[in-house]
Amino acid sequence: MSQQIRTVAVIGCGVIGMSWACLFLAKGLKVIITDPVEGAEDRFRRYLDEAWPSIQLQLGSLQQEPAKNYEFVADIVPRLIEVDFIQENGPERVEFKQELFKTLDQHARPGVVIASSSSGLPSSAFIGQCEHEPGRILIGHPFNPPHLIPLVEVVPHAGTTPAIITTAMAFYRALGKRPVLIRKEVPGFVANRLQAAINAEAYSLISRGVISAEDLDTAVTSGPGLRWGVTGPIVTNALGGGGGADGFNTRLERLGPAIRGWEKDMLEHRFDWSEERLSLLKAEVGNYLTAVNWSELTRQRDSVLLQLLKSKPNL
Amino acid sequence: MSQQIRTVAVIGCGVIGMSWACLFLAKGLKVIITDPVEGAEDRFRRYLDEAWPSIQLQLGSLQQEPAKNYEFVADIVPRLIEVDFIQENGPERVEFKQELFKTLDQHARPGVVIASSSSGLPSSAFIGQCEHEPGRILIGHPFNPPHLIPLVEVVPHAGTTPAIITTAMAFYRALGKRPVLIRKEVPGFVANRLQAAINAEAYSLISRGVISAEDLDTAVTSGPGLRWGVTGPIVTNALGGGGGADGFNTRLERLGPAIRGWEKDMLEHRFDWSEERLSLLKAEVGNYLTAVNWSELTRQRDSVLLQLLKSKPNL
Ligand SMILES: NC(=O)c1ccc[n+]([C@@H]2O[C@H](COP(=O)([O-])OP(=O)(O)OC[C@H]3O[C@@H](n4cnc5c(N)ncnc54)[C@H](O)[C@@H]3O)[C@@H](O)[C@H]2O)c1
Ligand SMILES: NC(=O)c1ccc[n+]([C@@H]2O[C@H](COP(=O)([O-])OP(=O)(O)OC[C@H]3O[C@@H](n4cnc5c(N)ncnc54)[C@H](O)[C@@H]3O)[C@@H](O)[C@H]2O)c1
Q1: How near does any CA of chain B get to the CA of A237, in Å?
Q2: Which residues cross the membrane (chains A, B) (predicted)?
């Protein structure tokens, strides 16, 4: 664990905040939590009890009892003096975050990172009223649930200082996460855009009647999806070109012309969100999803996920 | 195994043909192989020896010695009388396949499926000279290597008969494959288009300087890629919307407007294959790939792949 960071504030303890808090606790940090919703503390205790075993499994640790080193407070402001890192997970509304970040920036100790889990708003959209040290604000966008999925997208705004970026990356890394640096604010950051790209083509093919929704999923889970947990698009391309540093260029040269032909057709027929195509899509998807065994599927997904995470500690 | 199919012809025994032949043998079929290249038979024997253990591992079977029930022949024509299914894996050139399919169609027994592994050419492009029974020709497009990756895209042309489609799907399924039916010939079929979609956005983001090539791969392998071996795009969307048959629509309603914003930006900045962006892309990718430990990576990929395949026999 990063030496200086011992106490973390979790602001907003819903779906994402609860999961972050579990991870911080499992890593031996003290966690101060605030969330105005009624029953927030009870809800968190139940979540922690449920999540604890899989966190321990992933960490290869054997701590039977969930850590208790957390505290719910009604007002975080007077406690910010103790806090070494802030992870914000409140509602995704710009006015809300503007107001909140103004307050946090006003009261956090100098040099303390204030990271927002925001999946949509870049931090430049809500730092306008921060008068003290806006350079310590950035996005630390996790993937749900952050206590299991390693990816964190670190997205600085134009004025975030290099030292703060370094501190945030090192902190997430020390938690066992895999932070990636998004060098420019773009809508959707990176992982959500990559997902959007595959989704858009999936919606297009299904609504064109090229393939059923079920077969579309199979085409991923029994094909390229089997590898994307280990080799990303770039390395996968390079291996397709024979591997090695030249493999990527070899593949581009060999397949480039064909790929450009596919792209042309994809663009021409791209999913346009028209009522007509939406209703074709929803009808096909509806047929498929009524037949899915959800509990079996999520059980299998979680077990494969844990296996994958254990099998590639250093990837 | 499908009751009627006992003997398979493998036409062309390169990268893809060798792998198909191994699988057919492991499933107890007799295989008649033809490939004019010098040393084809030796090359195949070495491939079979190497591939056999992982096939057995995947099948949960314990057959120590590779099957010997195959035969290389210089001319397949006189042997087609014995053959119950043809898998073609020759070079990806339209004139070549036109000529070859004319001959195969002329001599194969009536009702015998002639499947081409072609990854690019739809069969309508090369059946023009088939005068006997063009309705038994279709694409059976595997993913490399077919002896391990379950996906087979079955792509009929407009005149392929329903009975032939059914026979081909049943045959691949009996081999333990996961065939999906592509209902209309589109360039790139389905899985390659989905890969092209994610690749295009990856190339765009890297060449725009939004993220490094290495972090791009991490954004997949530590994020959404961890799930795509179990849940495809549609089910993943539905789970993101709370699961169940309504989850998909819920997610579309909740995130649709944001996604359309990302798509707009993606389209505006899409990778255009210009010299400028290509060279930015290649420079970034080059930096990354020189540092990759390829043997460690492929070892890890193969072991994860086998684990995944064993962990989801019925998905
Ligand atoms: N759900 C996801 O999959 C996901 C993934 C990555 C990032 N995010 C981001 O994380 C953030 C939280 O999303 P979520 O899904 O956990 O939402 P959520 O609605 O589950 O949780 C938000 C919590 O904030 C609390 N809150 C409201 N006002 C507050 C205040 N003044 N101070 C402190 N807490 C307050 C709410 O009571 C609620 O418990 C959002 O910015 C979202 O974009 C969500
Ligand atoms: N390589 C892949 O990843 C991949 C994946 C899916 C499908 N495919 C498709 O599979 C087919 C074969 O591709 P490959 O990668 O195995 O190519 P390859 O070059 O490795 O193999 C082609 C083989 O065909 C042989 N051949 C040439 N003339 C022949 C003839 N008259 N009769 C029989 N064999 C002949 C060649 O000697 C060679 O061994 C192509 O249609 C390709 O699109 C390839």
Answers
A1: 9
A2: 7-26
